[in-house]
Amino acid sequence: MNNNENNSVGRVKTHSYTFAQSPDYLQLESGEKISPVTLAYETYGSLNSNGNNAILVTHALSGDAHVAGYFKKSDKKPGWWDFMVGPGKPLDTDKYYVVCSNVIGGCKGSTGPTSINPATGKPYNLSFPVVTIGDMVKAQKSLVDFLGIKKLLTIIGGSMGGMQALDWTIKYPDMVASAIPMATSSRLSAQGIAFDEVGRQAIFADANWQKGNYNDTNKIPAQGLAVARMLAHITYLSEESMHEKFGRTLVEKERYGFDFSMDFQVESYLRYQGESFIKRFDANTYLYITKAINYYDLAREHGSLKNAFKNVQAKFLVISFSSDWLFPTSQSREIVRALQINRKNVSFCEIPSRYGHDAFLLRNNDMEKMVADFISFVYEKAEK
């Protein structure tokens, strides 16, 4: 690790915030109640005296609170968006106070199906209530209040993180100065729901899933979760990027094996993605978070997409990527049109990229400059 070389925020620590402790509780959209609730979070930079330089980063399906920096010197990789967060970076920690939390329902320190149910002393597993994107945002609001943030300068996130960003502007319009939803949609398409369902069915079909009642003393449904991840990962890429990276190149062989072992490099890559995923993620959590994404539908919730954005006050920068077929540009344009109909302040850009849905997680000069300039503009306006 070389902090000076990449302007890293350096060594970081994950914190925990617990709220809704009995007799209080968090009321969920399903009607269920949960108590207590813990959110794992990380912060970078400092909150200014006005409490108006805070940026909330919201993560995608498999993300977590560790968005930047390193836990220890031996870490091989920094946080998942390290190139965006740090001194002199688009989310400049010399100017801004950056916050990222693991969502409720997650498995990286926040309350979710892997957490201990205080009523039983055992993991919730499938007794954990189904949560929504709105529930995630409601829990984040408690954290933001706890941190003393009066108003969020910006909320930024891609994919499921973009859904959270949109929901924040609708549920708490007075709390959000600007939002940058990236590679996202106001609702997941039927095709997207279908992919998620196949992934869940792969987990259900694993004999070790045991109707969600696996634990540390039992074998985990690793095979099912790995297959779910392999399928999902295909949707995150584009045909062009897969062809460029793998083509039809064989795996350390010159001819087909004429059996069912791996022949192609792309097969090896997908198996690696599945095997690495099971080491850092939980199968039940995958079920819950994909369900939350499937339920998200702003038009259904508010009567129409126009109605959904009627009362928002934030300035918007909506970003899509040309090769993203999971959350295509047409879905971003729907958001932009609804904002324009309501005469809201919105800028939009489709960034050329051959990397598919994952493009927002990869370095891109256009994206980085656009984000940096937009946030700087909003901040300068807020300071006047």
Write the layout of secondary structure elements.
Layout: H1 3-6, E1 15-19, E2 26-27, E3 33-34, E4 37-44, E5 54-58, E6 85-86, E7 91-92, E8 97-101, E9 116-117, E10 122-123, H2 133-146, E11 152-158, H3 160-171, E12 178-182, H4 190-205, H5 222-236, H6 239-245, H7 265-277, H8 283-295, H9 298-302, H10 305-308, E13 315-321, H11 329-341, E14 346-351, H12 365-383
Parallel strand pairs: 5-8, 5-11, 6-7, 11-12, 12-13, 13-14
Antiparallel strand pairs: 1-4, 2-3, 4-8, 9-10
Helix pairs in contact: 2-3, 4-5, 4-8, 5-7
Can you tell me about this structure?
The chain is an alpha/beta fold. It contains 12 helices and 14 strands. The chain has helices spanning 3-6, 133-146, 160-171, 190-205, 222-236, 239-245, 265-277, 283-295, 298-302, 305-308, 329-341, 365-383, and strands spanning 15-19, 26-27, 33-34, 37-44, 54-58, 85-86, 91-92, 97-101, 116-117, 122-123, 152-158, 178-182, 315-321, 346-351. The strands form 4 sheets. The protein has an 8-stranded mixed beta sheet with strand order 1-4-8-5-11-12-13-14, sandwiched between helices. Helix 11 (329-341) links the parallel strand 13 and strand 14 (346-351). The radius of gyration is 21 Å and the shape is globular.
